[in-house]
Design a protein that fits this description.
Elements: H1 3-6, H2 11-19, E1 23-25, E2 35-38, H3 40-43, H4 50-64, H5 68-80, H6 109-122, H7 129-143, E3 152-153, H8 175-184, H9 189-196, E4 203-205, H10 210-214, H11 228-237, E5 250-252, H12 266-272, H13 279-282, H14 288-299, H15 301-315
Helix pairs in contact: 4-6, 4-7, 5-7, 9-14, 9-15, 12-14, 14-15
The structure holds 2-acetamido-2-deoxy-beta-D-glucopyranose.
């Protein structure tokens, strides 16, 4: 037990946060290493209380709507995995990333816009949308029960990408395809298994699971890896898709968490008892490493929490823009060149 997790540098994060040094080479193994700074806006004296303002706003939203936690997590993932954490996912317009089919139902934009407005009134032109998204997500998931972890800052915002740049994989790929995708972003099997644990809360569309329920791999039968009780329960919530334009209901990714949207390790226990809702989640048992990690996390919440902190840090450092690269957007929805246009 715990062998796998121990083999990974979980302690690195703790050491960094205790040392109190200003800079850190974010996310090892990335090429080239990017320089982010701990408490960038304080250290540079540009907006001392930026992180406090952000936490305050997130708290206000969270109190009336706990879905901000899964929404921001997904938003951050959708940003960082596609061309790095540059807030490009926030940009609006025809054929923008937001309009890609994989990003259907993406939420959390409203809270980011509100935070940006507040920060622009306190410290104009200083705090990037990319940092806001990272910090707000950290705070929201912390309120949902995840550990708080240091988010290194100083990211700058990137330009607009087209919808076809969005390479987010479908939620029914195999574990090998999933791992290849995470590796292409500089992440490893521990990051992947940990980040999929974000599915311990939130909802998904029935269209992502109907094949598992009715016609797995064109067999006309349900996915044999899905617990038969769950098949019946989900069939009730997700009728077969027979007509175009039919409604596409939402179901909980983790029925154990449901509307509480609590961050927990019950996701991993569900994977072990073949009760994962998405195919990509159930697939974790089909790779020796991700299976071992799943077993460890199912029996040890603390291991999952520590690994989550590290994996979020690593994901939040993918291809960040620093120094003079990119810009600090005035409005997270538009690049400065198009601001006020
Ligand atoms: C199916 O799920 C139930 C709990 O809902 C569990 O007790 C049972 O072991 C599961 N079956 C399999 C084959 O994993």
């Amino acid at each position: 037990m715990m062998q796998f997790v121990k083999n990974f540098p979980l302690l690195a994060l703790v050491v960094i946060s205790l040392a109190g040094t200003a800079t850190v080479e974010a996310a090892t193994g990335m090429n080239p290493p990017m320089k982010l700074v701990w408490h960038y806006y304080k250290v540079t004296n540009t907006c001392d209380d930026a992180e406090t303002y952000i936490r305050y706003q997130v708290e206000k939203f969270y109190k009336s709507d706990n879905t901000v936690a899964p929404k921001l997590l997904r938003l951050l993932y959708s940003d960082c995995m596609v061309n790095g954490c540059d807030a490009s996912v926030l940009l609006q317009g025809p054929n923008s990333e937001r309009t890609a089919p994989q990003n259907r139902g993406l939420g959390g934009f409203v809270i980011i816009d509100k935070i940006k407005q507040v920060l622009e009134s306190r410290c104009p032109g200083v705090v990037s949308c990319a940092d806001i998204l990272n910090l707000a997500t950290r705070d929201a998931v912390h309120m949902a029960g995840a550990p708080s972890y240091p988010v290194f800052t100083g990211r700058r915002d990137g330009g607009r990408l087209n919808a076809d740049a969005v390479d987010l994989p479908s939620p029914s790929i195999s574990v090998d395809e999933s791992l290849a995708y995470f590796k292409s972003k500089g992440l490893d099997v521990l990051d992947m298994t940990t980040l999929l644990g974000a599915h311990s809360m939130g909802k998904t569309h029935c269209s992502h699971i109907v094949n598992r329920l009715y016609n797995f791999k064109s067999t006309g039968k349900p996915d044999p890896s899905m617990n038969t009780t769950l098949v019946s329960q989900l069939r009730y919530l997700c009728p077969p898709r027979t007509q175009k334009g039919q409604t596409d209901p939402l179901v909980y990714l983790n029925p154990d968490s449901g509307s509480s949207n609590r961050f927990s390790n019950s996701y991993y226990s569900r994977v072990l008892s073949h009760n994962a809702v998405l195919g990509v989640d159930q697939e974790l048992l089909n790779n020796d490493d991700s299976k071992e990690i799943t077993q460890e996390f199912a029996s040890g919440f603390e291991d999952f929490r520590k690994s989550f902190a590290l994996a979020m840090s690593r994901m939040g450092s993918i291809n960040v823009l620093t120094g003079t690269a990119g810009e600090i957007r005035r409005d997270c929805k538009v690049t400065n060149a198009n601001y006020g246009a």
